[in-house]
Protein 1
Amino acid sequence: MNVLVLNCGSSSLKYQLFRMPEEKVLIRGGIEKIGSDDAQHFYKAEGQDGQGSHEGTSTSEILDHREALRQVLHVVTRESGVLQSVNEISAVGHRVVHGGEQFALSTFLTDEVKHAIRDNVELAPLHNPANLQGIEAMEDVLPGVKQVAVFDTAFHQSMPPEHYLYPIPYVLYKRHKVRRYGFHGTSHRYVSSRVPFLVHRDLMNLKVISCHIGNGASVTAIQNGRSIDTSMGMTPLEGVMMGTRSGDIDPSIQGYVTAKEELTQEDFASMLNKHSGLFGISGLSGDMRKITEARAKGSARSALAFDMYEYRIRKYIGAYVAAMNGVDVLLFTAGVGENSPLLRRKICDHLTYLGLEIDVQANDTGKGERIISTSASRVTVCVIPTNEELMIARDTQLLVSGLESWGK
């Protein structure tokens, strides 16, 4: 079964084609600047039958997602030769950011499901409309092929009410569904599913804290395989300090700053989302690599930004140790979590009260999926590269295979 996985943004899309159940990536790529006359398409087709990989790039006019997907199918079938025909694509899996309270599992895309995604646009105005664009464009370009929605929020639907509700008038939840939803759920679900292979224990008997640390960052408490709390809230702005997002702040700051600086509500929201976090404190960048380099060269503001970032992640880890009355596994994933040994070491150096002991060599020089704590450590610390696309492909295959079996 060949499964095409799509992640559509407002002016971009990323894709991977998997051969399932082998979980082999046949081709991966992306298109940027959709809606312009100089859209850029790049791809890498993996080697077939022992042959080397093939890469390609092009620039052309791509005015909408339908044309972008036509290009993807052209590359998949003709330019790269990965498939002989689009008829070899068995199903399409879509990343959808917000499923609200309606979806705790991945599901086939129907008119009712699309309507629910539209209903949640106001909760994810930057993401759900783009996800819908990709879904509807694929329906036009590849009609009749089964499509599946995999929701970033679904994994966190296991949180209990005392964890997902805010201490504001309950009527706001009943009327407007104001509550914690959480994000990065597909990533947290994938990396936690890899834990048993590393620690050789059943996930259903473990307390795991998963740190997805990229430009956007979230920390999740996973008890017995289920998310019980997560740092992102009703929107991805809440939680730990991020690349350009503020994370948690005093709500009263909005009124104070907007009055002092004569800002609109939209200006203030833009400031918190695009001009805060590492970027806001350092004045340099939201990229941890640049922050680390500047810190090493003596930049006081970059050092301050790094220290704040580490501290706020560590605070959430401590909170989730309390929430679960302990922790068995601490894991790091995503761009910064996977690639910053300095950040991991600084965080772990302040968690020795848990009996946690990091293996400096494994942390600093190791590669890929691995344990970075010592054998004497009472908490196992892991680095697990995330693979949200594979999780989407697995869910899509599972649903389509189940439907085919039922049909027989």
Protein 2
Amino acid sequence: MHRPRKEMIAETRAKLITAARHAFGTIGYAEASMDDFTASAGLTRGALYHHFGDKKGLLQAVIAEIDGEMAVRIDEIASRTPSRWQRFVDECTTYIEMALEPEIQRIMFRDGPAVLGDPAQWPNANACVGSMTDHLTRLQQEGMVVTGVDPETTARLINGASSQAAQRIANSSNPEATSKTVVAAFKQLLEGLLKKQGSQPV
């Protein structure tokens, strides 16, 4: 019995993404050959062009997959925190610290920006800004964050800062040490949003 066309298309796409992800993560985008990863997926270059347009389109698909996995992990870690403020801080810093992981470091924070441009313009950026805006709006309503700042504008600034922070770690000659410095500075920036009161949330 023939499998549905939709299922076969999904399988072909998945095979190409898996092969490309391995190549991009180990040898990098520039060195990865389309012929190598189509061969390792048991497919033709024509299949790649049909599903993704070109190598750049395939990189976008790999980034979308990794980004989805990162979002799940960030949510898992942040959901364990006792307060909305700490969740917000943990979401941001967990994202930045993921720049220490070799695959994420190379694909998301080195090759991705070099090939696809500013991550703030990537399709996933709006969802991230939306989530941050929601957190900041609620934190303002709860009286934890200063009320004189616009939540969406602030969210966009924080999103840009976290992206730059991750790229700084990814391109550092000593990522571990840079991560500590960057995260400390980033947390200090975020604390500037807190209302100055007797007992600040921790």
Protein 3
Amino acid sequence: MTHLRNVLAIQPGQPASDGAGVRLNRVIGGGGIERFDPFLMLDEFSTENADDYIAGFPPHPHRGFETITYMLEGRMRHEDHLGNVGLLQGGDVQWMTAARGIIHSEMPEQEQGAMRGFQIWLNLPAESKMANPDYRDIEAAQIPRVRLGNGAEVVVIAGRFAEGEMVQSGAVQRPHTAPYLLDLHLPACSTLSPTLPDGHRVLLYVYQGEAHVQHSHAVKAGRLVRLDDQGSVHLSSETGARVLLLAGKPLNEPIVQYGPFVMNSREEIEQAMRDFRDGTFA
């Protein structure tokens, strides 16, 4: 029987603003992102006040990583310079590989009501940072959902969900970082023990209710738990909780970030800035 992964840190997100003034909770981002390798950013947006999101994210560039947008509620339209257009609604996922460069916008297609979801930045290895960009919209109906006998439910976006004899592959499989992205719904008095590969970095973000992590840590909504890289994971909730699980294989490469560019050296960042300025970005 494997031991439980140690809890390395429990931390709250920080209020932030991005795009043209969208208010959000920045859970991962900024200094010390090497601790979360291969994840570069996790933003939560959750509001019923249209003033917090209506300005959206006008056209802006990305290079060197992947972005994953997971919508829980609301409507957000994506457009990019490659001609891709997509509408994200509740339960949908957009998986965009910026690689050598994408210029895109994400604008709300609503003027009132709740807007709720997450955006995750996932690093690319050096060998893939200048590859061709890619884009994929995944409708909620295409994402596997596992319902367990204790009432728990798992939305299997990337990687796979495995517990005991239950194994379900997700909608997305990616090389190099082999990411897991699971939305865990725990009703009152339920438990979950997803099996994850040793060596993967594991992050748990409680976004609703309260969960007990590794039996002894009570974690309220709005807090991220960082676990070590070996062992098992145990979650439970007495009153009900929802938890976003991120796990991935660290790249262990240098990370140099300047705004929407994430490369391996300062010289590569400067080249990205020149390319964008000169109109040769993508």
